Amino acid sequence: MPPRLQMLPTQWQYSLPKPLSAVTSLSIIFPQLQQQSRNAHILASLSDTPGAYNKRIRRGRGPASGKGKTSGRGHKGQKQHGKVPAAFNGGQTPEIVVHGERGFDNIFSVDLAPVNLDRIQEWIDQGRIDPARPITIRELAQSRCIHQTKEGVKLLARGAESTLKQPIHIVVSRASATAIASVEAAGGSVTTRYYTKSAIARIMRREMHPFLSMAWANESGSDGLIKAERAENLTESVVMKEMGFRYRLPDPTKRRDIEYYRDPAHRGYLSHLLKPMEGPSLFFRSPVERKSAAGVKKEKVLPENRLW
Fold first, then answer.
1. What does the pLDDT look like over 119-163, one tens digit per residue?
2. What is the CA radius of gyration of the chain?
3. What distances in angstroms separate CA 178 from CA 103, 159, 175, 270, one per listed residue?
4. DSSP characters for the chain?
5. What angle, rounded to 10 degrees, do the helices at 117-125 and 177-185 form?
6. Are 80 and 73 in contact (CB under 8 A)?
7. What is the rounded CA–CA span in Å between residue 60 and residue 47?
8. Which residues have a Cβ under 8 Å from the Cβ of 143 and sit 6 or more positions away?
9. b vs e for 187-197, b when ≥16 Cβ sit within 10 Å of the residue's Cβ?
């Protein structure tokens, strides 16, 4: 038979109140009961992290819900009793008919931060930008030449009449034709490079190279951005290993972006991919290819006895 538990002295039980004596006797016999009661109290007080759970609003469930009776619609009126169009003006002539529609939102536009040549020259004169090194979006942002990187940087030609005092090599998202001509007239170079918002953020954290990528690794030394003696042995993997970059700079995937950065007129970084006499369009075909695709035109042979 299993061993019996030793009974407590009777004077202990009569000396305490009845409920307390029962709890005390059990806690002496089973000391783990105190631990269990504490755990039960902790489990009963669990709750979600603040902000992790939003309770669904139940409309029309009484005044205690905060959305009872009128369900948050207020009292009387047209908007409380039915749906009204967003531009509804009480039944009179709509505003768009009276004043007309002006302007539109271009869904394909890119929000770029503008920077002009005169501002860059002023920053160089103050010693805030080093013209001997490539000027990228990181140098422009860290020197406060631009205050917002947005989706990239566009180089404009304000101050082009007073030409640059020294050659500069600048890498931006886009550039105007006048700005390109002014920089190249001073002996410098302009290169347009594709960027994304996430790529710009990583460039600012020095986790990504500002302009070198797989599609541009072997062609970057020809435009003055990198010294010629290192251009031959310079690859993206070598740069990432030497400088400790964690991410690769992305290349464009949309046709509109690919064709823009393949255009030599825009000084795109993908212009080296074009063959001689080839255009930046992805659907470009040379005259020889067009002629071969059209085939040889056969001459119509008329019978001998035909009068016309």
1. 999 999 999 999 999 999 999 999 999 999 999 999 999 987 777
2. 38
3. 27, 10, 8, 21
4. -PPPPPPPPHHHHHHS-HHHHHHHHHHHH-THHHHHHHHHHHHHT--PPTTS--PPP-TTS-GGGSS-TTTTS-SSSHHHHS---TT--TTS--HHHHH-------TT---BEEEEHHHHHHHHHTTSS-TTS-B-HHHHHHTTSSS--BT-EEEE-TT-SS--SS--EEEESEE-HHHHHHHHHTT-EEEE----HHHHHHHHTTSS-SS--TTTTTTGGGGTSS-HHHHTT--HHHHHHHHT--SPPP---SHHHHHHHT-GGGTBTTGGGPPTT--S-TT---HHHHHHHH-PPPPPPPPTT---
5. 40
6. yes
7. 27
8. 123, 128, 129
9. ebbbbbbbbee
Q: What is the pLDDT of residues 235-290, one digit of tens each?
A: 778 888 888 899 999 999 999 999 999 999 999 999 998 988 888 999 888 777 77
Domains with residue ranges and CATH for the chain: 113-206+249-272 (3.100.10.10)
Q: How far is CA 52 from the centre of its chain?
A: 25
The Cα 9–Cα 292 span in angstroms is 113
Alpha carbons 171 and 190: distance in angstroms, whole number: 6
Q: Long-range pairs for 249-256 at CB < 8 Å and ≥24 separation?
A: 249/199, 249/203, 249/208, 249/209, 249/210, 249/211, 249/212, 249/213, 250/194, 250/196, 250/199, 250/213, 251/194, 251/213, 251/214, 251/215, 252/194, 255/282, 256/108
How far is Cα 261 from Cα 270, in angstroms, rounded to an integer? Answer: 5
pTM of the model: 0.61
Residue type for position 222: S
